[in-house]
Amino acid sequence: MRHLLLLMCFLGAFFRGYTQFTHAEIKVYGLTCSQCSRSVDKALQRLDFVSNVQMDLQQPTAKVQFKKGVPVDFSAMAKAVRAAGFAVGNIVAYGRFLPDGQGFIKEQGKLYYIENAATLMPEQSQALLIINKELMAASEWMKLSAHQRLVAQQKSKEAGAVVMSLMH
Q1: Region 25-33: what's the mean pLDDT?
Q2: 68: Cβ contacts below 8 Å, ≥ 6 apart
Q3: What global pTM score does this model have?
């Protein structure tokens, strides 16, 4: 019994605030042709945490796979898309997440806050919309509820966290 209790404490400490981003989808505004797609692809491929990029002109999105064990930088992805001459509509990150009791997760030294963390299912891959005024188009920002925008501004200011919202 004692060993079981110690194992449970160890696992609880180990998994606290656990996250593993596996890939993301970036909605790219202005993407209309294969040459446009190629320039965004090349810009994203230059990032050291990116393992693969698949462009989809029909959506228009960039599907970005991440390297395991390398910190993901969503700001760098947005800057790469902008440097290629396009705008970021929004970024949806995928992976497995187990936030702490307050909704925070930490990945490679970066802090994230999940506004609706209570509804997460950590045993399944989840989709999280990144809620950050600098990482989404103004039109996408305004589609969010006033509450979501307020939480995003407060948590980023107070804790330096990137705010995310579970996609349903």
Answers
A1: 95
A2: none
A3: 0.85
